[in-house]
Design goal:
Layout: H1 2-26, E1 30-39, H2 43-50, H3 56-59, H4 61-65, E2 70-74, E3 83-87, E4 95-104, E5 108-117, E6 121-133, E7 136-146, H5 154-157, H6 160-179
Antiparallel strand pairs: 1-7, 2-3, 3-4, 4-5, 5-6, 6-7
């Protein structure tokens, strides 16, 4: 009887490992999150404000989560090569830096995010502006990244679109409120 239980447990364990390995191999490693808002201001005005990373302290959701975080800025804000560094004791803010990698003036800014704590990872972020009318601008804020195998299994348990997307939606809502004052 004990032998049958051990064999059953062994088969269960082997099947579990096979299923977990299959899940890791079949699960995507890449993710993409994007939110948008329409702001009742001209495109040039919206882009001029949004491309300044220091302004994210006013409209981005993370500074509100930890107003006491340490920050350091390197370079000329709003231009390629500018780096915004942060260090927080709160896990949902963490430690890392954001660097402006590309700017298409009035239309698109691309940044690279380098997270250090609570875990190391890199991701790419972008912000685009599109004129809807003379006094209306559609702003899209997006984030792309990947989780290497076997960490990609976390995507089963963590809804990245919901977690980060909610922060993006909150930030864009704040951006709209600030610019429409």
């Amino acid at each position: 009887m004990l032998k049958k239980i051990l064999i059953g447990f062994g088969l269960f364990l082997v099947l579990g490992i096979v299923a977990l390995t299959a899940a890791v191999m079949l699960m995507p490693t890449d993710f993409r999150i994007e939110r948008e808002v329409t702001i009742n201001k001209p495109k040039a005005e919206v882009f001029a404000y949004a491309k300044m990373l220091k302004n994210q302290n006013e409209w981005g959701p993370w500074f509100r989560k930890d107003p006491a975080m340490k920050q350091e800025f390197v370079g000329s804000d709003g231009s390629v090569g500018f780096i915004s560094k942060w260090e927080s004791t709160k896990d949902d803010v963490g430690t890392g830096e954001q660097e402006i990698r590309k700017i298409v003036e009035g239309e698109r800014m691309e940044t690279q995010l380098r997270f250090r704590k609570p875990f190391e990872s890199n991701a790419d972020s972008y912000l685009t502006t599109e004129g809807v009318s003379v006094d209306q601008t559609k702003v899209k804020w997006g984030f792309t990244g990947s989780m290497p195998r076997p960490m990609n299994l976390m995507l089963v348990f963590v809804d990245m679109d919901k977690e980060v997307g909610n922060d993006f939606a909150e930030g864009l809502s704040s951006l709209k409120s600030i610019l429409e004052k």
